[in-house]
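Hi! If you just cloned this repository, the fastest way to understand the data is to look at a raw example. We've pasted two of them here, unedited. The first protein comes first, obviously.
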Amino acid sequence: MSIYILPAILALVIKLLILGVSVKGKHQSTVFITMVLILALHNLCEVLGFLEFFESGPKEYLLRLYYATTVWVAAFMLIYSSEVSRLKHGHFRAVLMSIAGVVSLLMLYTNWIVAGAESLGYTMTVVQGEQYWIFRIFVLATLLAIIPVIVVGYRRATEHIVEIQSIYTMFALAPLMLVGISVIVLMSLGVRVNASAFIPIASTLFLLITLKSEYRHNLTDVRRFIPFSAERRAANQIMDICSRYSRDKMSYRDGINEIEKILVLQKYQKEGGNASATAESMGMPRSSLYSIFNRLNIDTKD
């Protein structure tokens, strides 16, 4: 047994703990819990692949199961991203799951995609079948589709919580997507790659961050930590005003006016300089918003 099994075992234990917390939680979605379960099964296949007592026959079937669960991992990552982004599913989910089911069955019961298993250092790797490109295209396309799904969901979001959850999901997926895409590209170039020590860690990090985002009442708006974002700019400006006020460099009334100006301008800029949309999102008549503009000396386009 190799020492490289330790990250996979640790990742599996953490996934099982996350699964337990998710099942007992009141706010976790069915998609999230299913995704955790599939990732735990995927991780278990990685752990068993390290064990020396598996002979050639069981090892080959174990590798087939590993690749079949990889297909479902990619599918549920995309499904979860669409759920977080609040995008209308239509028949998308059913079609995606049908394709994933067909591809995984081909892996398990034919040699078209997975033709066998061979040793690779401390573990094993796949012998590619003639139709291995089906697996490669499915996983690559699914992973790449996650990015526009989250971006579109973020841009169309009408709720503050959807924006924050979309950012959390993108940050969580980045390491896992990078590892997955890199492995697929390298194997396409003929490089023999085994990422058994990296994928479990990246997938566990993904689950830990998304588990945090599932508890919506306790989310930190990470946008205020992103350089050049409007939220970070506004947060820095407000902190500067508080600092100046605490050092008696600004009066109470001036401080209140400056903070109000920052908040109004941020909302106005977010609505693309549309006064009507800004007034509606702030819950006031357009005339009241213009009164605020005049009082705070805010120049507008309209």
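Ok, and the second one:
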Amino acid sequence: MRWQMLTRNILNRTHPNAAPGKGQFPPGTIAVRQLGKTFSVAAPGQQSVREVLQGVVFGGRKASRQVTALREMTFTVAAGDALGVVGRNGSGKSTLLKLLAGTMYPDSGTLTVGGRVSALIDLAAGFHPEFSGRENIFLSGTILGARRADMQQRFDRIVAFAELHEFIDVPVKYYSTGMFARLGFAVASSVESDVLLIDEVLAVGDGRFQTKCLKKLEELREQGTTLLFVSHNLELVRSLCSEVLWLEKGTARVLGPSDEVLDRYRSHLHNDVPKQTQGHSIGLVTGD
């Protein structure tokens, strides 16, 4: 089959930054210390055709500027906890998840993830547009580290959860965004993992599908899976997560109980930032 040609060189693997050896770092635990990530962005302004050709022939480069996506970020997540991550667009949420997923590497600091990581960050990630939903279930499962035999056992449950019985043999390039979300979530949540990373995927589903996904996430949490959930939907975060990390301009501004952090963040969004008081149960996150 076509999916086998793509996955024959993919081996079962844990996170690239997972701690080696058993017992050294509990499965499901996340430790981030002084984490930093910077990107080079092309400087504003247009190049002439001559400048473009000179760059191609002589190897010249257009001037660029450095943009800091994450700066000295430090936090830990205990195994089995559910951590919500909130912040405005551009605050560093997606960059953080990609670093934790191992699809991107930090420029400074360290991060350690115990055990196997499953991530649902990009709806199209792990899917080949020309392949059917059926073929992509096996492809995505293999990329996530599952064996074909295991995916075969889970296949009917995945299709039922995604509610794609009539379309499972249709190439996914014809799927709507909602169908992509249902299939992606169904596959990612079916693979046994110690840590599950989720980035805004529930935002594309309807209310009924969101409720269904939340119930599944609660089941995974009860089974001991650690959840890291990024969303702009504060009520979804509140219902699922016990703690929340508030990011702002690439820094970890506040980490604390979900109700308190979300209330404070909501006030901030309405330009009504409460003053800090001594002894408050929410603390600023520092790099110490």
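That's it. A detail worth noticing about the second one: Residues 256 and 282 are 5 Å apart (CA to CA).
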